[in-house]
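Progress report, Aim 2. The chain analyzed during this reporting quarter is listed below.
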Amino acid sequence: MSEESKNLSALEILQLDDITWIDVFVEPWKTKVRIKTLQAGVAISFFKQNEKRSDGLVRIVQMSAINTDGSLMFNSNDIEKLKTKSMKAFQILQDAILKLNQLGKYAEDVKND
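Predicted structure tokens for the chain:
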């Protein structure tokens, strides 16, 4: 049996480190930004708290962008300053975050493959 098809126990799954990351080139900033997958609880809380907020795009980037050591690149105190940055940069990052987490239209793409 291949490693891909191995059935894990609940305990084994709960002990997994399943948070992954990718580097995304953000053209307006002329740099790569590392983004991570969101933990399920964080994503649920985010969507519940931000469904009526206009700054959700900035907040999801704040929650997903990480430094090379895995710590958050931005904290919640940076939200107002982040709002002054390029919308194009946030769109690039949001698209990558949604795809990495298989949310939105990207979840449909995965189902249809």
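The two ends are 24 Å apart (CA to CA). The chain has one domain: 19-112. These observations will guide the mutagenesis work planned for the next reporting period.
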